[in-house]
Amino acid sequence: MSEPEADSIRIRWSEPQEAARLADIWRRSVRATHDFLREEDFRDIDILVREHYLPQTRVWVIDVDDAPAGFMGLSGAHVDALFIDPGRRARGLGRALLDHAARLAGPLTVDVNEQNALAVGFYERMGFRRSGRSPHDDAGRPYPLLHLRQD
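Below the sequence we write its predicted structure tokens.
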């Protein structure tokens, strides 16, 4: 994994007018990593992300060369969401967002889809360890969640 150049990235709060652009990052990222989602569930979640979550929630955005390349939702020390543009993965951007969150909030927790092997591996490389498991996602859909925490 290559590290991002310090002068080419910036982490900042999202702006309401960029919700559609961030939703596009979310959509492409999920399509690249969540092949286990049923299409109807993807469409339902897409509506929630596009129409409710991103327009109403300030998230941390990571810019590369002044353009959004990913974002992270953070509630206290819990990472609610972390999505990187698929064309920019494996370049240290997710790590930079997690480092930013840890500086703000201390040791972090996150819930990740058990079937998303790439995400599980990423969080484990970032020092997260399994602390529990739920058989369904937060909406009761049949997608088990792993509960992870930083040591």
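Residues 1-5 have pLDDT under 50 and may be disordered.
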